[in-house]
Design goal:
There is one protein chain. By secondary structure, this protein is an alpha/beta fold. Among the domains are: 10-101, GTPase HflX, N-terminal domain (Rossmann fold, 3-Layer(aba) Sandwich); 195-365, P-loop containing nucleotide triphosphate hydrolases (Rossmann fold). The chain is built from twelve helices and eleven strands. It has a seven-stranded mixed sheet with strand order 6-7-5-8-9-11-10. A hairpin with a 5-residue loop joins strand 6 (235-240) and strand 7. The chain is globular and about 65 Å long. 33% of the residues are buried.
Length: 389
């Protein structure tokens, strides 16, 4: 039920613009997600509407356009860059005679392929079951109600009701298993607190280079790929900050627009690594023209998991892809580091980042003595590099 074919599938992509100010990066991101899921996009259909249509999400004219594209490219899959209701998915599949997947289903499929640890697989399966429970009717419309009459009386439960009951039982079982994992994680967190080491967590939009930066800071070799959700399972390592000060660094799953609510709930145990942090390194793709919108999405998720109050250091990554930017550090009105411009892949600016982390963590521990420390360190660093602001 949950395994998807590894081979690519010929797909028609559909994106509807509902706002005049939508960035072209939204469509590019959609294309990358489809590729990450293993699909082979054959054609992209764009449109503009004020609001979704109730029956098919798109108008009948667009439905005909999608059908024509399916026939022309011999495709058997349509992927929407939007959340579709169960009824809309069912109506579209009946009309187009092919499989239809919404944005949530697409993201869940990617997560199912990328999960490696026992906890990660449980979290993905929980999210899939919660998503599937609302869509069971698609496969069992002929068993929606029991029939009466001699020879047609059922055992008291339709197949649809039976499947829903089985899914509820599986969800309950998975939640129990995740609760055990959560207890084990809580023990590890208590042990880290006793060690009195500062806990830093990498956060940010998907595919901004968090894992590459994690490897650069810790010397680890976790998977770092130029694709959405390359990291799904959290990784934790020790690192040495400026002056050799030890700390703990966690690499977590990236955020994305319209992150499914069920997925946030399912990954609550993993996201606890973010909630427990003393400092968040918010990694931002410096080459993105959509930085402000992506930042809003990250802050929105942090608010959902009650981690927005944790101090953040903004790290603008991938400056090696920009022509006019060099590694530098920016400070706020109090003299503390607020932004660092680096390239995790080339190592440019990593020393500045380590210095910034050291200053911020020291300020959290000894706020009264931080001003004189920051002033002296800033003066010394300014002599070493004229790029520091």
């Amino acid at each position: 039920m949950f395994e998807r074919p590894q081979s690519g599938e010929l797909a028609i992509l559909v994106h509807i613009h509902f706002e005049q100010t939508e960035s072209k990066e939204i469509v590019e991101e959609f294309h990358e997600l489809a590729l990450a899921a293993g699909a082979k996009p054959m054609h992209l259909i764009l449109g503009r509407q004020r609001t979704p249509f109730a029956k098919y999400f798109i108008g009948l004219g667009k439905v005909d356009e999608v059908h024509a594209a399916l026939t022309a490219h011999h495709a058997k899959l349509v992927i929407f860059n939007h959340d579709l209701s169960p009824a809309q998915e069912r109506n579209l599949e009946q009309q187009l005679q092919c499989r239809v997947v919404g944005r949530i289903g697409l993201i869940l499929d990617i997560f199912a392929q990328r999960a490696r640890t026992f906890e990660g697989k449980l979290q993905v399966k929980l999210a899939q079951l919660q998503h599937m429970s609302t869509r069971l009717i698609r496969g069992w419309t002929h068993l929606e109600r029991q029939r009466g009459g001699i020879g047609l009386r059922g055992p008291g439960e339709t197949q649809l009701e039976s499947d829903k009951r089985l899914i509820r039982q599986q969800i309950k079982t998975i939640k129990k298993r995740l609760a055990k994992v959560q207890k084990q994680r809580a023990q590890s967190q208590r042990a880290r607190r006793k060690s009195q080491l500062s806990h830093i967590s990498l956060i940010g939009y998907t595919n901004t280079g968090k894992s590459t930066l994690f490897n650069a800071l810790t010397g680890a070799t976790v998977l770092a790929a130029n694709q959405p959700f390359a990291t799904l399972d959290p990784s934790i390592r020790r690192l040495r900050l400026y002056n050799g000060t030890p700390a703990i660094l966690a690499d977590t799953v990236g955020f994305i627009r319209q992150l499914p609510h069920d997925l946030i709930e399912a990954f609550s145990a993993t996201l606890e690594e973010t909630q427990e942090a003393n400092l968040l390194i918010h990694v931002i793709d410096a080459t993105s023209t959509d930085k402000l919108e992506r930042n809003k999405e990250v802050q929105h998720v942090l608010e959902k998991i009650q981690a927005k109050q944790i101090p953040q250091l903004l790290v603008y990554n991938k400056i090696d892809l920009l022509n006019d930017t060099t590694p530098h550090l920016e400070r706020d009105s109090t003299g503390l580091p607020s932004k660092v411009w680096i390239s995790a892949s080339t190592g440019e600016g990593i020393s500045l980042l380590q210095q910034a982390l050291y200053e911020l963590l020291l300020a959290k521990q000894t706020p009264t003595s931080n001003q004189s420390f920051s002033s002296s360190l800033r003066a010394r660093s300014a002599r070493q590099s004229s790029d520091i602001v």
